[in-house]
Amino acid sequence: MAHPSQLGFQDAASPVMEELLHFHDHALMIVFLISTLVLYIIVAMVSTKLTNKYILDSQEIEIIWTVLPAVILILIALPSLRILYLMDEINDPHLTIKAMGHQWYWSYEYTDYEDLGFDSYMIPTQDLAPGQFRLLEADHRMVVPVESPIRILISAEDVLHSWAVPALGIKMDAVPGRLNQTAFITSRPGVFYGQCSEICGANHSFMPIVVEAVPLEHFESWSSLMLEDASL
Amino acid sequence: MLAARALRLVGRRAISTSVCVRGGHGVAKVDDYALPIRYVQDLSSEQKSLKEKEKGSWATLSNEEKIALYRISFNQSFAEMNQGSAQWKSVVAGMFFFFGLTGLVVLWQRKFVYGPVPHTFEKEWKEKELQRMLDMRVNPVEGFSSQWDYENKQWKK
């Protein structure tokens, strides 16, 4: 999760997010360079007493300020496309989870081996235990084994939602009648929070996503426990 | 370089056009200039006699006459043209005034319009939240938890 007044990205919890962080640094540096140059030129233009009204043409600088932006764009596009293709690589997932968006909660289905499904509602503010995070905690977390490739199929049962977890670098729209697939690997254990990212009605701000990455044994005992609870 | 050319005076009106100005390696039409403001004016009899005197040697002109001749042709001297105004003071004053006014509106809103913040903003709750974030190792790489010294239980210097 973000700490209060955090401006930058959260630390990456997946390799894709790491790549996105580095690409953002690269692109932002280019943006800063261009902005500094433009600001300098503006200040120089505005603060001079000299006038020049008789320039007719200037082939050299026209060539420079056409070619240089093209080069800059290529320098941005190449790393960007690299990450795009990286995200689409075959990754042979260990587990497939379905995340279904409802008004106004998420439901998760783990149906690879057994029939496990449960709803994940936000914990209301008045029911929080001391120290829990307002508007972020959910009663049932989506637990995944750490360092395993996970495939997640996202859809919705009523209106558009969007399943987003910033620390994993994932955002995928939940479209009714459509299955959207994405995949991730958590590089480290932990709890990663996200919020619904497509306006879906009155409680759109109150249907958070909580992903908990745990070692495989813990995942196995958790799923057995959830199955028992469901069968009660 | 005046590129507007007066063709003739018709009834005390000057008719002008723009002229192609050769610019070295290209040609430009410089038509963003009208004729000078005082191209056609009615001169008083002293000014007319001064203009006649101007046709002779300029050494015979006194300083006041030279200034009078300048004023016939030009509206302002360079010093008058370049002097600034005091307008910026009113602008800055108005700016600060509206900042202050906005500040008053915001303070009034906070006191009389907004309800109380949620109970999760209490000091004890925030302390528990902070401890929980550290226990959960939130952002441990370069962010939040990376700044905490877990051995000595304090923030890193």
UniProtKB/TrEMBL annotation, chain A:
Q: Which residues form a coiled coil?
A: none
Q: How is the cofactor bound?
A: Binds a copper A center.
| SUPFAM superfamilies the record matches | Cupredoxins, Cytochrome c oxidase subunit II-like, transmembrane region
Q: Record's InterPro entries?
A: CcO_II (IPR045187), CcO_II-like_C (IPR002429), CcO_II_C (IPR034210), Copper_CuA (IPR001505), Cupredoxin (IPR008972), Cyt_c_oxidase_su2 (IPR014222), Cyt_c_oxidase_su2_TM_dom (IPR011759), Cyt_c_oxidase_su2_TM_sf (IPR036257)
List required co-factors. Answer: Cu cation
Q: Which GO terms describe its cellular component?
A: mitochondrial inner membrane
Which catalytic reaction applies to this protein? 4 Fe(II)-[cytochrome c] + O2 + 8 H(+)(in) = 4 Fe(III)-[cytochrome c] + 2 H2O + 4 H(+)(out)
Subcellular location field: Mitochondrion inner membrane
Keywords from UniProt, A to Z, are: Copper, Electron transport, Magnesium, Membrane, Metal-binding, Mitochondrion, Mitochondrion inner membrane, Respiratory chain, Translocase, Transmembrane, Transmembrane helix, Transport
Q: In terms of domain of life, where is this protein from?
A: Eukaryota
Q: Which residues form the Cytochrome oxidase subunit II transmembrane region profile domain?
A: 1-91
**Gene Ontology biological-process entries:** ATP synthesis coupled electron transport
The protein's GO terms of the molecular function aspect are:
copper ion binding; cytochrome-c oxidase activity; oxidoreductase activity
Annotated CDD domains: CcO_II_C
One Pfam match, by short name?
A: COX2_TM
The topology of this chain with respect to the membrane is:
Multi-pass membrane protein
Transmembrane ranges?
A: 27-51, 63-85
Cytochrome oxidase subunit II copper A binding domain spans which residues? 92-225
Function as written in the Swiss-Prot or TrEMBL entry: Component of the cytochrome c oxidase, the last enzyme in the mitochondrial electron transport chain which drives oxidative phosphorylation. The respiratory chain contains 3 multisubunit complexes succinate dehydrogenase (complex II, CII), ubiquinol-cytochrome c oxidoreductase (cytochrome b-c1 complex, complex III, CIII) and cytochrome c oxidase (complex IV, CIV), that cooperate to transfer electrons derived from NADH and succinate to molecular oxygen, creating an electrochemical gradient over the inner membrane that drives transmembrane transport and the ATP synthase.
> What does the similarity note say?
Belongs to the cytochrome c oxidase subunit 2 family.
The name under which this protein is listed is Cytochrome c oxidase subunit 2
Species name? Arctogadus glacialis
Lineage, top ranks? Eukaryota, Metazoa, Chordata, Craniata, Vertebrata
Q: Which gene is transcribed and translated to give this protein?
A: COX2
Automatic annotation (TrEMBL), chain B:
- Superkingdom: Eukaryota
| Biological processes annotated in GO | mitochondrial electron transport, cytochrome c to oxygen
Q: In which pathway is this protein known to take part?
A: Energy metabolism; oxidative phosphorylation
Looking up CDD domains in the UniProt record yields: Cyt_c_Oxidase_IV
State the annotated membrane topology for this chain.
Single-pass membrane protein
Q: Keywords, A to Z?
A: Membrane, Mitochondrion, Mitochondrion inner membrane, Transmembrane, Transmembrane helix
Mention any one GO cellular component term assigned to this protein in its UniProt record. mitochondrial inner membrane
Places the protein is found: Mitochondrion inner membrane
Q: Indicate where this protein is primarily found.
A: mitochondrion
Q: Where is the signal peptide?
A: none
Q: Which residues cross the membrane?
A: 91-108
Summarize the subunit comment: Component of the cytochrome c oxidase (complex IV, CIV), a multisubunit enzyme composed of 14 subunits. The complex is composed of a catalytic core of 3 subunits MT-CO1, MT-CO2 and MT-CO3, encoded in the mitochondrial DNA, and 11 supernumerary subunits COX4I, COX5A, COX5B, COX6A, COX6B, COX6C, COX7A, COX7B, COX7C, COX8 and NDUFA4, which are encoded in the nuclear genome.
User: What role does this protein play?
Assistant: Component of the cytochrome c oxidase, the last enzyme in the mitochondrial electron transport chain which drives oxidative phosphorylation.
Give the family per the record: Belongs to the cytochrome c oxidase IV family.
Q: Under which name does UniProt file this protein?
A: Cytochrome c oxidase subunit 4
Q: Which organism is it from?
A: Gadus morhua
Gene (UniProt): COX4I1
